[in-house]
Amino acid sequence: MDNSLTRDTNPLSVNAYNKTTLTFLSIKFEGRPDPPKDFANGVTDTSITVEWKEGFDGGYEQTFYIKVNKKKEKKVDSKCKIGNIWSYTCQGLEPGTKYNIEITAKNCKGSSKPCHLKYRTEGKPDPPTKFRIAKHGITDKSIMVEWEPGYDGGLSQTFFVFYKGIEHEVRSSPTNGSPYSFKCENLKPRSTYTIVLYAKNIKGNADSCILKDCKTKEFTSLCGKCKTRPMLSTFVFPGLNRCGFTMVISG
Fold it and tell me: CA-CA distances (angstroms) from residue 68 to 6, 45, 84, 98?
């Protein structure tokens, strides 16, 4: 066998056979361990639990080291291993914060390539984005607004729209990739409104998004010709009062 082969060489394939049987063998050389694999996680507002499976140990006993946000690495105790699953919990973290976690396997021959993982602890949601008036969303008595959701904080979030001094929960969800939307109704023609939007989950409220100077259109009749509401005139014809006959003329 070629003595120049090293641990960094790809696994060697060997074919062994006789007159009736062909057997395929794959050989790995001793050396540095392979990186860990098959990661899973569990996240709370102050902790991140990471689970993984060990790769090939290089033919030697291996240990694992974990590093959070480039701080000093910590050795993972062998008690954290159940079967071939390793687990480690990073505690004392800040809510709603992004963390970079690095896991490396080591043995007497060296270290594996580090595995870089990114997580975010649970927390308040991020503010919605692209809060705007919908295209063709303004009439004389309503304004349709729409937005894209921000990060939900790792939890279920709800949106609320506030206008005319009243808070309204957004109960409908978009479909087919459409943005969230809400119709502000019962408004007055040619009037200006401020519309406020915010997201909320069990950890708290996101910062509000505000649309100022949202103005409704002038009133337009069904015929589309007049821009003011019709005045109703009432005439009572003499001599017909006994019958209560009244004619109403739209002027």
Answer: 32, 16, 23, 11
For 175, the token pair is: 């479909």
Calpha distance 215→187 (Å, rounded): 10
The one-character DSSP state at 59 is T
Amino acid at 22: L
Beta strands 232-236; 81-82: pairing state: unpaired
Q: What is the pLDDT of residues 154-196, one digit of tens each?
A: 999 999 999 999 999 998 888 777 899 999 999 999 999 999 9
Q: Return the percent helix, strand and coil in the chain, to nearest 5.
A: 0, 45, 50
* Domains within the chain, CATH numbers bracketed: 12-120 (2.60.40.10), 123-251 (2.60.40.10)
Segment 211-251, tens digit of pLDDT: 999 999 998 765 555 555 544 444 454 554 555 544 444 44
